[in-house]
Amino acid sequence: MWNTVNLLNAPNWFYADRYNIDARVAQADLRAWQSQGGERELLRLALRTELKERFKLVIREQPSKEKMFELVVRKGGPKLKAAARGSTPPAVSVKLANGGFMTPIGSGTDGWTFYGATMLDLAQYLTMSTVVIPVRDRTGLTGSYDFPVRRIATPDEEEQVYGHVIGPLGLELKPGTEIRSALVVDHVERPTPN
Question: For residue 35, how many C-alpha atoms fall within 13 Å in the half-sphere facing its CB?
């Protein structure tokens, strides 16, 4: 979730400019690229190399106290249904990192129904709605579950993560802070055209 990494000391153009990278994988490396893990290690290495060479990017990590949300079990305990074994995903579904899947409720703007999902899957989904603030699973629940997560409108000034109704699942979000690495840009240049 790169959007939750705080980037410090970057020039304004760094956020505004857009670049296309046209790259090919050598035939000899194709199998390794196709079997990368979820962290996309080879892709990240290639992008880091490109940024260093073309943008002269020099960055370092620095500990920083940052906002986060904790996904926790509410008083009264969880109200989750254990996942049905061997469920076949519907034709319209999104595969989750831990093997489950989710399907849209309506067009997806009304929420999603999760099947065989872990609490880590839910935390990652909720993180996407915050744009920059990670949601950490602190439930202690280790199973896989089937559950709906409905969306409701929230006031503009309220964090969008609260627009996901998780109370009926016996869960809640608590704001907090954590120490995590921020990336500090020590040097970067606009690339020259090819």
Answer: 4
